[in-house]
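Propose amino acids for all 104 sites.
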Protein backbone atom coordinates (compact mmCIF):
# COMPACT_ATOMS: atom_id res chain seq x y z
CA UNK A 1 0.00 0.00 0.00
CA UNK A 2 1.45 3.31 -1.06
CA UNK A 3 0.70 5.85 1.67
CA UNK A 4 1.58 8.77 -0.55
CA UNK A 5 -1.32 8.08 -2.90
CA UNK A 6 -4.02 7.38 -0.32
CA UNK A 7 -6.82 9.90 -0.01
CA UNK A 8 -6.36 12.37 2.78
CA UNK A 9 -8.92 15.06 3.58
CA UNK A 10 -7.75 18.57 2.81
CA UNK A 11 -9.17 19.92 6.08
CA UNK A 12 -8.71 18.65 9.59
CA UNK A 13 -11.54 17.35 11.73
CA UNK A 14 -11.91 20.61 13.67
CA UNK A 15 -13.16 22.48 10.57
CA UNK A 16 -15.59 20.17 8.75
CA UNK A 17 -16.82 21.11 5.31
CA UNK A 18 -20.30 19.67 5.93
CA UNK A 19 -22.70 21.75 7.98
CA UNK A 20 -25.20 20.29 10.44
CA UNK A 21 -28.03 21.00 8.04
CA UNK A 22 -26.36 19.07 5.23
CA UNK A 23 -25.26 16.21 7.45
CA UNK A 24 -28.60 15.57 9.15
CA UNK A 25 -29.91 12.13 8.21
CA UNK A 26 -32.63 9.77 9.26
CA UNK A 27 -31.44 6.27 10.14
CA UNK A 28 -33.60 3.32 11.09
CA UNK A 29 -32.60 -0.30 11.61
CA UNK A 30 -35.36 -2.41 10.09
CA UNK A 31 -35.86 -5.82 11.68
CA UNK A 32 -37.33 -8.91 9.99
CA UNK A 33 -41.10 -8.57 9.74
CA UNK A 34 -40.93 -4.90 8.84
CA UNK A 35 -38.04 -5.40 6.44
CA UNK A 36 -40.44 -7.07 4.04
CA UNK A 37 -42.21 -3.74 3.57
CA UNK A 38 -39.42 -1.23 4.16
CA UNK A 39 -36.45 -2.10 2.00
CA UNK A 40 -33.13 -0.25 1.88
CA UNK A 41 -34.27 1.44 -1.31
CA UNK A 42 -37.48 2.68 0.34
CA UNK A 43 -35.56 3.94 3.39
CA UNK A 44 -33.17 5.82 1.11
CA UNK A 45 -36.12 7.51 -0.56
CA UNK A 46 -37.56 8.45 2.83
CA UNK A 47 -34.17 9.87 3.83
CA UNK A 48 -34.09 12.05 0.72
CA UNK A 49 -37.65 13.28 1.26
CA UNK A 50 -37.06 14.03 4.94
CA UNK A 51 -33.80 15.82 4.18
CA UNK A 52 -35.65 17.91 1.60
CA UNK A 53 -38.43 18.75 4.07
CA UNK A 54 -35.87 19.56 6.77
CA UNK A 55 -34.13 21.96 4.40
CA UNK A 56 -37.50 23.50 3.51
CA UNK A 57 -38.17 24.17 7.19
CA UNK A 58 -34.76 25.76 7.57
CA UNK A 59 -35.37 28.09 4.63
CA UNK A 60 -38.88 28.86 5.92
CA UNK A 61 -37.40 29.95 9.26
CA UNK A 62 -34.86 32.10 7.46
CA UNK A 63 -37.67 33.79 5.51
CA UNK A 64 -39.62 34.36 8.73
CA UNK A 65 -36.50 36.01 10.15
CA UNK A 66 -36.37 38.21 7.06
CA UNK A 67 -40.01 39.11 7.72
CA UNK A 68 -39.02 40.31 11.19
CA UNK A 69 -36.27 42.42 9.67
CA UNK A 70 -38.74 43.87 7.18
CA UNK A 71 -41.04 44.86 10.03
CA UNK A 72 -38.28 47.00 11.54
CA UNK A 73 -37.59 48.70 8.20
CA UNK A 74 -41.26 49.63 7.85
CA UNK A 75 -40.90 51.81 10.95
CA UNK A 76 -38.38 53.98 9.12
CA UNK A 77 -40.86 54.93 6.42
CA UNK A 78 -38.99 53.20 3.59
CA UNK A 79 -41.89 51.00 2.56
CA UNK A 80 -41.88 52.02 -1.12
CA UNK A 81 -38.16 51.35 -1.55
CA UNK A 82 -38.43 47.78 -0.26
CA UNK A 83 -41.82 46.84 -1.75
CA UNK A 84 -40.37 44.44 -4.35
CA UNK A 85 -38.31 42.75 -1.63
CA UNK A 86 -41.41 42.37 0.56
CA UNK A 87 -43.36 40.81 -2.31
CA UNK A 88 -40.56 38.42 -3.25
CA UNK A 89 -40.12 37.26 0.34
CA UNK A 90 -43.86 36.72 0.72
CA UNK A 91 -44.11 34.75 -2.53
CA UNK A 92 -41.16 32.54 -1.58
CA UNK A 93 -42.63 31.91 1.87
CA UNK A 94 -46.04 31.12 0.40
CA UNK A 95 -44.52 28.68 -2.09
CA UNK A 96 -42.45 26.91 0.58
CA UNK A 97 -45.38 26.53 2.95
CA UNK A 98 -47.71 25.21 0.25
CA UNK A 99 -45.13 22.82 -1.20
CA UNK A 100 -44.29 21.44 2.25
CA UNK A 101 -48.02 21.01 2.91
CA UNK A 102 -48.35 19.17 -0.40
CA UNK A 103 -45.42 16.85 0.40
CA UNK A 104 -46.76 15.97 3.84
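Proposal:
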Amino acid sequence: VDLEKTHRPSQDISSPSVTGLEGFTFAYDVRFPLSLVLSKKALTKYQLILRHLFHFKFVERQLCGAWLNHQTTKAYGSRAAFMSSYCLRQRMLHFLQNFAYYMT
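Helices lie at 20-23, 32-35, 40-74, 83-103. Residues 1-9 have pLDDT under 50 and may be disordered.
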